[in-house]
Amino acid sequence: MSTPCSENRVHQSAEVNSPRTPNNQTSWRKPCPVQGERPAQAAQGARGGGPAARQATRPRVEPRIEPTRIELLAKENAILRGQVELLETDAKLNEALEKESHLKKVEAISDLELQLALKKVTEAETGHRVKQLEEALQLQKESQWELETNLTQTLLLLKKSQEDAEMNLAQQRETGRQLQAALTESLTQANSQQLQWQEEKGHLLQALSQITSSLEEMRVVPKPKKLSLRKRIAQFFRRSGGQ
What we know:
By secondary structure, this protein is mainly α. The protein has 2 domains: 4-57, no CATH class; 102-242, no CATH class. Helices cover 79% and strands 0% of the residues. The chain has 6 helices and no strands. Helix 4 packs antiparallel against helix 5 (162-220). The longest helix has 89 residues, at 69-157. It starts with a helix and ends with a helix. Residues 1-64 are annotated as: Disordered.
């Protein structure tokens, strides 16, 4: 069971271990009587006795142990150093993430530029091939017209060679039709390839957008390691080719 005197002792021990504040300089609690005396007997002894009795009943005040200002400053400095170290660690981590993100962006842009350059080269080669076929067809048409003119003159001059001339003309016309068919097929293939390149370009742009969004998310929350851009693009084309 707790008594006022025991509570007073607990309060005094708390004051000794706590730093001094303007409101904690003096204790408002009354001193406890000597152990073994009742509160009434201690009070009666204090009233009836002389100076020796009053001195015996006077409480003993323990010296207060307070932390010095240097210790408080040392603790504050230690806390501040810990906070500074945490901030430096966060700054280094953010810098590393930014560098990794920048390198991945540069790699993605380089791959896209390479793909576009290859497409431009292929388109240029196809255009050159179409131009060659058109020139060959034009030359064939001119040659056919000259041949027809010569055949007309030859028919007027040499009626006997009419069958041979007609056969030769038929062969020339067949060659012209074959060239025309080849040109038509080449133009169709060129248009098909151009549509396919445009579709692949759209897929590449979509993949680039997805990669950019993933990189933006990686700046905030670290994610597990993914495949490289080239492997992802190759995997994407394999899937598209399989469909």
